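Write out this protein's structure.
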Amino acid sequence: MSDLDALSAWAGQFLPVPLPRAGLQLVAVTGDAGFRRYFRSNTEPSFIVALAPPEHEDNCAFVNIAIAMTQGGVDVPKIYAVDYERGFLLQEDLGDRLYLDVLNDETQSQLYDRAEAALLQIQRLPADSALFPAYDASLLQRELELFPEWFAAGLLGVELDKSARLLLNDLFTTLMSSAAEQPQVVVHRDFHSRNLLALEEGGVGVIDFQDAVLGPLSYDLVSLLRDCYIRWPRALVETRVEGFRRKLLAQAGEGAAPGLSDAATFLRWFDLMGLQRHLKVLGIFARLSLRDGKARYLDDLPLVLRYVLEVAQKYPETEDFYRWFITCLEPTLDRHSWYLPWQAAGEAS
């Protein structure tokens, strides 16, 4: 029996609705960049059935985080049944209206207002270290190392000499120090337009939360507003960043962390957190192509490069990295079929 047949037979035992006369059918749904595979049932209403191999996915963490988020008022899919040994999950279907599909100039203000409200709910969740691992310096460092290993060397074929390695070490130290300065809250870790659903009643469905951690306050905000799959003008982004800072200040009252009181400090946190995230993403997207055969992620690299290089130009402590990138890496980019000039990446055609 194939995995899909076994999954279908298992799900049929736990569906809280009658099986269709023609039998249960599961139709593949585009999944995330990990090992999970998602299927939608042909029932009324429909359900999502997931195959999450336990050797690759921590399904206990997924279920426990889902419970915590539900208790905190976050709209995540309800879980109806789990087989931990085989990695089978039966979940609520929140629909298929991904933010990426419905965001445009007319809808973005309202949709981002709702997403930021959901983000504030996530950040208010109890900081349970048994449930949410620390997004500490060692984890941030491991993520940053994906950039030289998979993007620079793996994808571009550029091996780093000693001076380049020292330059990156200095940059990484700056980014990790900025992250450590920030208040630490629950972080979804992939809070963007492909993991948010516009619900019919006006809510926001949140998915793909299994890697949530306790980490820097600005991380999810930069994932949302400097999204790897859709770009907004800098002025709009920075206006929303300032608006979110004011929401945090109002929420915290007199107990606000020092950095929240200063707009420039908060924007610097946001920018440098984005630089860390986007360097990591360059490595992840390269690895997804080179190791996992998911070459479609290469098409998103030019926008991620734009985010990296725009921020790197902005601060004195990151300018050396910008100059090194332009001198040593940029000349290799146009050899690749996925490359488009980063300066215009994400612009409407």
